[in-house]
Description:
An eight-stranded mixed sheet has the order 3-2-1-4-5-6-7-8, with helices on both faces. The chain contains 15 helices and eight strands. The protein starts with a strand and ends in a 12-residue tail after the last helix. It has helices spanning 10-21, 33-41, 50-55, 71-83, 98-109, 126-129, 139-144, 146-152, 171-174, 184-211, 228-235, 244-255, 271-282, 287-299, 305-318, and strands spanning 2-6, 25-29, 45-46, 62-65, 89-92, 114-121, 132-136, 176-180. By secondary structure, it is an alpha/beta fold. Helix 1 links the parallel strand 1 (2-6) and strand 2 (25-29). The longest helix has 28 residues, at 184-211.
Amino acid sequence: MQLGMIGLGRMGGNIVRRLLRDGHSAVVYDRDPAAVETLVADGATAASGLEDFIAKLELPRTAWVMLPAGAITEETVTALGGLMSADDCIIDGGNSFYQDDVRRALELNERGIHYVDVGTSGGVWGLERGYCMMIGGHKEAVDRLDPIFRTLAPGLGEIPRTPGRDGRDPRAEQGYIHAGPSGAGHFVKMIHNGIEYGLMQAYAEGFDILRHANSPELPEERRFDLNLGDIAEVWRRGSVVSSWLLDLTASALASDERLENFSGYVEDSGEGRWTINAAIEEAVPATVLSAALYRRFRSREDESYADKVLSAMRKGFGGHKEPPRRGPAP
């Protein structure tokens, strides 16, 4: 099956490569000519611009947009909508806000153009591992694109099958689902990323407690000088907290247990905030997920104004003086 891909970054490029390996064909476009040339060497067809891109796609056309969420995706989807025809399909595989998907689908459907939102998880490892996909859109369009999704998905692999799934949608076991109408795919992926924030924060805090188990503030007989790399490794094997995130942590600690190449400044890409907003709208408590998001905000401050206010109040009501600032832990 033929697919057009706009945006050939780490994920877009590897999605194309995985499709080419399985016998699909691809037309590719990116503002960076070098990215296009690399995919052409792998067997893709180059496009020089959006009009050339559309001209090289077979009817009914399928264009996958793999760009950062926000203005650039909005502009690209709008431009494609002006160039495509009824029964063509636009896929947004980035991390767009699900409410934008709902709006875009309504606008494009008026012209008979399908819009499919694909929450795509797999990162830089997707080429070899496959991509977990959460898909939103009309059943007709999603079913037509099934050969694409089936190739990109990881498949059953070595994960044991879940008892009691007889008669259910087999695609979930392959690593992709049709979650619902337009917007549902990115909504599920949004919550997926919110959960990811919480899981990552739990691991981070746990290893921080382990690292400070030899603190001089503890009684000497209760201090432990622990090997964090070995702890991460043993937890990977048979532990209830084993996961791919732990695998990545173990790899990082094996290379450098002090993590000297990292500052601890942690960005958030938007999905965590949207997850908390959804929880508020639904009146659903999300204490872990919201705390994980706020911790990312705090990671970007060397000195918090809020902490200074706390110190000022303590000095005011009790004469408490701040102790000398501690240096980094060894």
